[in-house]
């Protein structure tokens, strides 16, 4: 059974954490840090498996990771997950994960449920996600749309605060407000 | 209202959404914590607002903060609010937050039950889906119990999207509520053949996960999985199935044979690495395929891709467990992997080595490992190496060690490791070997004394857990076996050096104790040699040096030292008077020490009247010296203390007991001898003296400069083996000459086998002591908290009524099955957990059928297994035997088939037995001997089917199954608790009223609506006129006069069930409520509004809930005297007592507590907690029911109802 799925960047910042076993927030953070510590120490050309360390909660656990940057089935799963993210976000990048954790969670929920594999067919996953998004949009209705438009017109003060990394993303969004 | 909404929207404009929060956190890198606490305050404000959108937004942000490590449990209630939002958008946010933060300890989780149930039956598949996903993360035993039935219903949902989720979540439900496994299993099994691949794969997933833990219960599914394996193209599914077969093949060897072909085909498939890897665990015992598999794995391991390498090694280790020989030939490859730069791979290789050692290669492998120890960077890996070396050498009672001197030297070499955490491990090994291998003591003592002598260990003793632990062992061994010391005086001095006082306390304590032992033996020597001065000098040394220990801060050390110092001073006085003291001093330490089995302490029976949990004295405050104690590794030492030296008499007694025990063990077939080590041969000889010890030629210096000592032994050993071999050859030649043409067994063996290597020393491994009658068993190794143990359930047994799943409220059955069918596993009436007694009782009458069914199942499997592997993918179990070797069971099962088949099958079975002789032409023979076989069949039936003493089996041999004990009894016709409510040309309503324990004073009315017309019925609404006493639960916000919508439509001919909840004030009287069902009937011609009136009848029985009760609790209840009594009698009853009771159980929700002849006690409980006890007695043609209940009105009403039921019998 899958015990947890974690995504973090090269600096150890968690971008997604999904635990399928009850852990306190502290243990979760410890596991996240421990995992990052272990993975970051590993060389480039080594295998993607790490076995039972205290840092990741004991000897029965196995850590399977992939740098995005493969037990093969889980590696494949990571691959499918990333590809699905890619499809849903159109060329996924870290910023997508940063700002849309909820969406990432929703995608993950269609793949793994309670620590068990639910679906590995990417098209199936994407179809479900699309339908769910449509449903969400239809629920939002006109009022919400207006609201979000109004809200986004508040933008002028925002660019001051965002750092260079974000600009590329934001700029692509701006034209739609003209 | 509208204004409020606008206001809410405007407010929202200024709220941060998730993106804003993330952005904000990124912009406050300096004071992130402060910023976040500010945000949390805002969120708290937002949560106070009425607008659900605002709340959802807040909860969404909280989910993000949770990921960053912030506790959000305080918002649990708000999360539930958002979960119950009607919009999917919000619902999803709520469930996500719940799945991230809820756990079993979350107290508000019980509030979610009804919400989740509602979402599960929602018409939108996404609502259902999101609820399932969320639930999978936070399901608790309570939720599992309450929702199991709802989820089970969803397993047959029309949408595969829901089906697969429902199937998958069942695994979680089983874990939390194991009772649900049996009722749900048939449907789960069905899903293995679901048309949708996703659902199928989910079912495979769940069953494989279950079977992995308790494979034996799933053996009967083998044919089904076999079919799936040969037909499925989904690699994920294949991997799972093969893993499952891996668990099954050890239980059923015939399965392996069957699997060879399909598995071999799979291996040949190009590029299916994952399959290959999982294959290795499921490989049948077939050497060719194993070879093939191992070869393919070798290719993987040699691959440059590190992942494949890792997986190859992983798979190898699985094969190693079953076929060590085939892996051993790849030793070179695995040793190579030890050089890999990747730690994961090296660890995997190490693991493999553990299983690969033999007597022949142990030294070589360990030598290789030792070089790695030297090279290893990083203490973790080095420690891992160290433990592995010790594991490898000590495995199965030192089975592979032929030369213990070598092993001791290895241990000594390992002590040179700096900074290892495993000093105590090495120490434990030294102690163990020195105590248990008597022949090695001399050598061990010499090594240990040089260890004590060498200062390099002391230098690094600052690390508490470090290698200095070995000094503990060294000191003890030198002291205990001081008679073997070459220069005891020298060692004594080494142990009394001032530097010793820098060692950890527990080591110093051992030093002090053993210094005295050493001292005693020196005294002995000196006095025997007549060197009185020498003896006095030693005493003086003791008196001089011991004070340094007396000053120790460690209590243990100080206490021992001061005690001993006084003793030595006393001795000194005696010596001054020229009194010989050596005898008496040595008497302090007389007696032999025996190793005690680790579990021995546990196995000592507690004497009667001794309460180990009771305080002897009230506990004092914690003593600080606790943590200074040595760890449990040194149990030998600790356990010795209370025992101390057994007296001479004890020794004899012990020997006698040991002998008796050995005798008993030898005769006991269940006693597993600890290991088949050849050393054990010697343990039966009475003592060390009789062991012919081979003197080792120590003329070879033990230390060669530049070469670690242990290497010496490798060379020595090679020479020795060579010598042995030569001798053997010589002997053989002689024999050969003698026998000339006689049988030669060893004739052409090029290499000597493992067993031929005799150990260098005549070692005797002393068996560990155990208390009398205690057997070393593994049962206490099992973890009683293992969640999977509860799932070890026989799945082939038919379901008992009491096992059905509890049902509550809104159930939305999608299948069009009619609920009247009682044999459907979906339970209809009973709730609560099964009770053994009751179950037993109920099942009594069905024992026969059950047995038959079980046999049938086994037979199916036997039959399937026995067919020879077909060329094409194997067929599912076919009813007609077609090939040879049909199991006996198959015949018993197919009894109901025609006579011909039976005899033929039997005949074939006979053929199978005689297969050896005439395998060539079974068919002609069969025809020829048919008559004869028929006769044999009869005889065989008797002999095989009738185990001696089994009358049941005899009964079974008869043609019709006879009901046990009551042949005249008719089984009850299938009954339904649903009664007709109302009907017209459009629709028929039947209903059942059930109480629920969860909600106080609530009952659930399940109404089955059956569309009898050709129109589609929609817009159904149920309105009920509430009374003072009974009210219908309506959705929030609706008024008393509003109807409650039925959550589905009915196409023509379809029936479905809707559930409605009613709150009842007083339950002591029956109730009637008027109501109307209104609906729109729509067909091609148009739609009409229709309605149907009905009267709901709540009987008093419907307020009762079947609750099991044990007889002792029942007796207590009756004795309590709080219950009022009443009774009824009904005449003219012809029904059997058994059926009568069944009727009462069924219609009035009672459970049988006890039954004696024609008298039974029954129990039930009302939703408001009234106890109802019944005593039912059957006379000739009458039944009398005496009842006791905490409410007399309720009781009399109940009895009236019961009377009506009984009158119909």
Automatic annotation (TrEMBL), chain A:
Adaptor protein complex 3 (AP-3) is a heterotetramer composed of two large adaptins (delta-type subunit AP3D1 and beta-type subunit AP3B1 or AP3B2), a medium adaptin (mu-type subunit AP3M1 or AP3M2) and a small adaptin (sigma-type subunit APS1 or AP3S2). Interacts with AGAP1. AP-3 associates with the BLOC-1 complex. GO terms for biological process: Golgi to vacuole transport; protein transport. Its main location: membrane. CDD domains: AP3_sigma (cd14834). InterPro entries: AP_complex_ssu (IPR016635), AP_mu_sigma_su (IPR022775), APS3 (IPR027155), Longin-like_dom_sf (IPR011012). Part of the AP-3 complex, an adaptor-related complex which is not clathrin-associated. The complex is associated with the Golgi region as well as more peripheral structures. It facilitates the budding of vesicles from the Golgi membrane and may be directly involved in trafficking to lysosomes. In concert with the BLOC-1 complex, AP-3 is required to target cargos into vesicles assembled at cell bodies for delivery into neurites and nerve terminals. It is found in: Cytoplasmic vesicle membrane. GO terms for cellular component: AP-3 adaptor complex; cytoplasmic vesicle membrane. It holds the Pfam family Clat_adaptor_s. Keywords: Membrane, Protein transport, Transport. This is AP complex mu/sigma subunit domain-containing protein. Residues 1-135 form the AP complex mu/sigma subunit domain. Belongs to the adaptor complexes small subunit family. The keyword Protein transport applies. The keyword S-adenosyl-L-methionine does not apply. SUPFAM superfamilies: SNARE-like.
